[in-house]
Every structure is written in C-alpha cells, then in structure tokens.
Amino acid sequence: MIELSRIDWGAYECRCGEGGHVGEDMRRIISARSLAEMGVATLEGHVEDQAMVAPVAAPAAGVIMAAFQEDLAPVVVEELLLALWRLVLGEADESVTAEIHEQVRDGIWLIYREATRGDTETALEILEYVERDRARYEHVRQALAGRLAKRTR
Fold this sequence. Notes:
This protein is mostly helical. It is built from ten helices and two strands, in the order H-H-H-E-E-H-H-H-H-H-H-H. The chain has a two-stranded antiparallel ribbon. The longest helix is centred in the middle third of the chain and has 16 residues, at 74-89.
C-alpha cells in the first residue's frame, strides 16, 4: 500500500514508548485475510491507549482512510473502523486531533459508505465528530435509523 510506505514511521513514538513499529503493524493488519493472519498485530496501545492518542495517530488515520479504498477482509474493516473511532474520539494535543479529523474528512465518503453497509453505529459516531455539513449528517443518520434499530434488537 503506497500511503503506508510513504510515512517515516521511525520518526514517531507510540503509546507503548517504542518507535517505528506502527507501520509494520498496520501492514500486517491491512494485508490480513483473517483474524489468524492478523495475529497479535494491533493499533490499540500504540496509536492510542485508554483514550489517549499519540502523535503517530495522525499519519495512521490517513493510512486507515486510504486502506478503506482497498479490498479488505471484513475482519480488517472492523478492526480499522474501531481503531479510527478511537482516534477520532480520543484525547490528544489539539494539532493532532485536528490532523486526524482532517484525514478523515479527506475520505469522508468512505465512512458514509461504511455507515450504509457495515458498522453503522461506529461510522455515524465518527461522522458526528468530523462532518462539517451537519444537514447532510442528520439526513443520513435519519435515513439509516432503521438500520440502527435492527442492530439494537
């Protein structure tokens, strides 16, 4: 994946205190076709930990958004969407948060697509934080209300 290889991951320290490994963890997650192939690779505890987001989260968010354009295994989509949700809603330096939100806005239609066919609740929550067009967000949220109701039964 081109976006993944564009980042100098060694320039970023993650929440575990070590640097440089997040890119390889992301590569393993994105290329996995099953949970078993993902192995122990995770972004939790690295790009964020207990709602605290590390600076490495900003480029990670961009890679996640680029990955959503790929042919991903459903388990990978779930993992990446949940990771993105943690990044968008997590606590970070204001500039890191702004960069994460901008990365998501750059590919916002990918999150809308996920809202219509995947994890509607998580996708809508991400959109609630990043979407600047409130009327569009509300319209889509209302249009998907039936889909949300089915999930909560």
